[in-house]
Design brief:
Layout: E1 7-11, H1 15-25, E2 30-34, H2 40-47, E3 51-54, H3 65-69, E4 76-79, E5 96-98, H4 105-120, H5 123-132, E6 148-152, H6 156-167, E7 171-175, E8 187-189, H7 194-197, E9 203-206, H8 220-225, E10 231-234, H9 243-251, E11 257-260, E12 280-282, H10 293-309
Parallel strand pairs: 1-2, 1-3, 3-4, 4-5, 6-7, 6-9, 7-8, 9-10, 10-11, 11-12
Helix pairs in contact: 4-6
């Protein structure tokens, strides 16, 4: 669309600030908003938006995918997060889907290293010693320097992790669909090289999209190939790590520890054995959530909106086959 005033639907749990920002940037746009999943099909049918900005704010279960991809749906869906698997599949000739990849990559990299340092500095052990008023004069710190980090998925988040890994003096291995030399990465491999890479890594950061090819990528065989003192951080999408294999690996201490921010079932059921294990960190899919992230994502959308109105190529177009 070039030069025309678009009809925009904002689908978010807190649309108020986004509506106010839209008024500042595009006061002539026709805008509607919805803060729920239920009833979106009716709103889309009556409003017939050209563009939808949508955040998957209540999880993938029940997300109104059909409403957005139906005959009354928009030409362009801008996903407020990085994952678009809740929309898969779609016809790219019928609708363009973009995401907000890169907005939270720095925060997710900080989460990754915060989790690794939690384990290597034995923060839980230090807390226990403090509670017991125990002074352990023989305690040793475990450095990151000189260790090997495997990054599964060298997208925006993987590259942000690699940049910080360089500062810590880590040797960095990474995988991507199309291997090519990359800054801050010592070795770039194709994903099919993973069976030979698991056992080389002291630390593993999983940040690949959820695709048919990556579902349950980290399975029992993968855990069995890892070092017994390996640490895993999962900031990908629920389903990349196979749940039963994860539980068995953590229960039997096949690896030393895991920081888990995503799960195949979210919220994580209260009866999940993972809650009881002392070698796990469990967080509620919040590694990408920081103060101001919603507006940062929306600002990226507004930049793209200007491109869309000018007839220019959008950034962060998602290929439904590749998933990113």
């Amino acid at each position: 669309m070039t030069g025309e005033t678009p009809k925009i639907l904002i689908h978010s749990s807190e649309p108020g600030p986004l509506l106010a920002r839209m008024q500042d940037v595009a006061p002539d746009a026709t805008v509607e908003a919805s803060d729920k999943y239920d009833g979106l099909d009716t709103l889309v049918g009556s409003f017939r938006p050209d563009v939808v900005y949508s955040i998957c704010f209540a999880g993938r279960a029940g997300f109104p995918r059909e409403a957005l991809l139906g005959e009354d749906g928009p030409e362009w869906i801008s996903v407020g997060g990085s994952g678009a698997d809740h929309l898969t599949p779609w016809n790219p000739e019928r609708v363009t889907v973009t995401n907000s990849a890169g907005v939270a990559s720095a925060m997710m990299a900080e989460y990754t290293f915060g989790a690794l340092l939690h384990f290597t500095l034995d923060i839980d052990g230090l807390a226990a010693d403090r509670s017991a008023r125990h002074w352990d004069g023989e305690r040793l710190m475990s450095p990151l320097k000189g260790k090997t980090l495997l990054i599964v998925g060298l997208g925006n988040t993987g590259q942000a992790i690699a940049a910080r890994a360089r500062a810590f003096g880590l040797h960095v291995l990474g995988t991507r669909a199309r291997p090519a030399p990359m800054e801050n990465v010592d070795e770039v491999h194709a994903a099919d090289a993973l069976p030979d890479l698991w056992g080389r890594a002291d630390f593993i950061a999983v940040c690949t999209p959820l695709l048919p090819s990556t579902r349950h990528l980290v399975d029992a065989r993968a855990f069995g190939a890892m070092k017994p003192d390996a640490l895993l951080v999962d900031v990908s999408r629920g389903g990349v790590v196979q749940p039963d294999a994860l539980i068995d690996a953590m229960r039997n201490r096949v690896i030393a520890g895991a920081a888990l921010d995503v799960f195949e079932t979210e919220p994580l059921p209260t009866d999940s054995p993972l809650w009881e294990l002392d070698n796990t960190i469990i967080s509620p899919h919040c590694s990408a959530v920081f103060e101001g992230w919603k507006m940062a994502s929306f600002e990226l959308f507004l930049e793209n909106l200007a491109r869309w109105q000018a007839g220019e190529t959008l950034v962060n177009i998602v290929d439904p086959e590749r998933g990113y």
